Amino acid sequence: MTNPSSQRRFRNAHTWVPQVSILRPGIPLNLVGPARLAIFTLLALTLTACRPHDFPQYPPNYREYAYVTNGGSGTVTVLDVVNIRLDRELAVGQNPVAVTASPTRNEVYVVNSGAEGAQGSVSVIDAENNTVAATIPVHRQPVSIDLDPAGALAYVANSGSNTISVLDLNVRREIAQIGAGEEPIAVRISPDGKTLVVANRRGNSVSLIDPAARPPAQSVRQVFEGCPGATDAVILPDSSKAFVACAAGHQVMVIALAHSKTNPAQPDRLETLMDVGRAPVQLALKPDGGELFAVNSLSDSISEVVTTTDDVDGAHMIGDDPVRGLVSSDNSLLYVGNLRSQEVTVYAIDDGKLIGSIHVGDGPSALAFSSAGHLLFVVDARSADISVVRTASRSLFTIFPTGRAPNAIAVKAFKLP
Question: Out of 41, 124, 280, 363, which could bridge 134 as a Cys pair, Cβ 3.0 to 4.6 Å?
Fold first, then answer.
């Protein structure tokens, strides 16, 4: 999420001209009929020819899909990752804004924010046949979702209701509602399942919630003030610390969490407020938890943070309005989408320097890797498409159209029985 000024830029970017499907950069868009068909046929043959050498070989029962929420269309674009093709477009609720995949079942959950001030919902997608299996009502303007490690419970931040909905995914209904701060915008559950961290954007605060406490009214453990425009949160793999981006300012709040293995006897406490760049709108954590990167939208930079010592190790200019970062599974590379450009920049973490950029569609704003890590999917908000990047060569492979105003992505891989 962004601060108010960044949000205004983002919304203005979603005034679209008519869309054109683009399969490869460099194809003249005025080609029609046999000429265009011949080019697309040649591209298809090229893709088929290179797959055995450049892509994983999957068993017959393997499936993998990427799901892109289209806020302006009320739909989800489904991309078949195995065959690298569009699968379908699913109608969900009004204004879908977030999506996540279950870690334990073949389901994907889409948060539908709805009309302003109206009740929202969560759409449950059955990934085996890519249909909407259920819709779960929540409260006003839900914007974020996270799942417990077992995949049995979902936590949804309702920004218009100042609450967190607790959903039982087995029976597909809300079972509790927990009060949060003003305009909760992000909700994260710790890997050990013992703490919910809620960033309250308008409340300029962070709520820590014990998800096991009953009744829900007694579950708020602690509230930390002084994080202007709190907008994103990450939690270390050992559940010892939470880091929250204060997007209306220039800081990251660091909180030591109680009930963790490394801090069992200590209460939740504020460790520090670290100075980073202006408008840190997102935090990208390395999979090993050793470092994180604050993506500073208004400074056009990233700040590198050592999580063990809470030290800011430096800042690097990265691109025009960076809004999303994603670290590779081997902890070596940071990919950053720059909203007011057509570039994803690549930062080598160990070397501490930029090593290149990848030309994609207009307004790259959300990123996800394929399960094998050989592809990077880039959601392009301005051009309403999804770019497919080959990570081995760090080059654009192809582009597919989405619905209007795409804004989030999740990938689900599984094997059929």
Answer: 124
